[in-house]
User: Fold Major facilitator superfamily (MFS) profile domain-containing protein from Coleophoma cylindrospora.
Amino acid sequence: MAVDSSNSSTIGGDSVRDAKEKTHEAVDPAINHQRLSESAPRSPLKETEANIFPETEDTAEADLEKGGIVPPKPVAPGGFNPADFPDGGLEAWLVVAGAFCCLFVSFGWINCIGIFETYYVETLLSQYSSSTVAWIPSCEVCMMFIGGPIFGFIFDSYGPRYLLLGGTFFHVFGLMMTSLSTQYYQLILAQGICSAIGASAVFYPAMSCVSTWFFKNRAAAFGVMASGSSLGGVIFPIMIQRLITRLGFPWAMRIAAFLILGLLIIANLTVKSRLPHKPKKFHFMAFIRPFSEPAFTLMCAGSFLFVFGLFLPFNFITLQAQSMGMSTHLSSYLIPILNAASIFGRIFPGIAGDRWGRYNVLLLTSIFSFIIILALWLPSKSNAPVIVFAVLYGFSSGAWISTSPAIIAQISPIREIGIRNGSMFAIIAISALFGSPIGGALIARDNGGYLYMQIFAGVMIAVGCVFYIGSRYTQAGFALKKI
Assistant:
């Protein structure tokens, strides 16, 4: 009986101890996470993910992205758990609406640079060659991209508020100064640098904020956001040309600046990050470290080469069409047509990317881009092929805007999205700066013809696609699967 009593006491003590341990585990999410990690099935791509997502919360995010398990909410505090992403709702879509306005006034303004290239060559800067004039829109695109690392760091540390306020001031102020400019250097400083820095400061926080609200539907949200740049690329060229004809260049720029100010007021009221932001020490290696990951490095290399050719049709399609006999009136609508098609190219490929894989959609649309440049735009000798090319290229090139940032978000920890997007776009800034002047120099080399420039655009996009294939290979090999 004594033995039985002792056993009974021991069993009772064990029960109490077990109950206490279970209670402690319920309170301490770290224990749950450790056991979950030990028992959870491994993702088939775990070897790659281990390099890209070294931290707990980022591994959980990667597993969900590629079809793995979804950890319970308490495991990943601080908003890192994929289940914490709203992926919709009024607040999230208001952020997308504000980001839409940011893209309208930043990338949408950049998308109409071909209008200014044509106007400056024909009137204000007629004494300069097209290659020299091309430095103005090239500086604009370069400054739009090159601020990425700094603005990404500021976003990760302080959130979007200061960036949006500063960007609003510099973008509007730069365009107001452009309205007063008559000299080449003045246009470089006002439009090519000041306004573009402001546009960059509103572009990056908008893109990064949307990433914090969406996970499963991230590419679709990026597509809706990026369609703002296409709509801006439709409205601004028509608006600027009509206003120049009726009111002159100075008032055309001022009215555009007032429109941009109104849209940025909306953006300042709606764009916000879901995550808390804490000031961080600046570490230069934070921008270099992502390049140790093959997927990220190959993606950046592909985008660097891709952008050498990406903007050449935007810059020169109007002049090329006029050189083969298209009327000035009809050719002035080519860029709006191209950007109108790009609206669909930014929304539908984004939705398709969420369903069938963002890498897959990016590859298909990028390959299609260089094919139509070399097979349709290059041999075109009449109006119809050029108009068809504008529609098709607008659609295919628009997909790059919505899918490439979504892919960077897909292969990056959520806390580093600002820095990583900034690093990629800073690399792109170099090719954006030199792409148009190289195109202009090739036109001069061809004695005013556009053959060399068109071949250059198509080949650079094709080589960029090779690097995209390499980046995808690091994630899933050549397997035909969603990635």
Observations:
- Residues 2-84 form one domain.
- Residues 1-79 have pLDDT under 50 and may be disordered.
- The two ends are 67 Å apart (CA to CA).
- The CA atoms of residues 311 and 388 lie 17 Å apart.
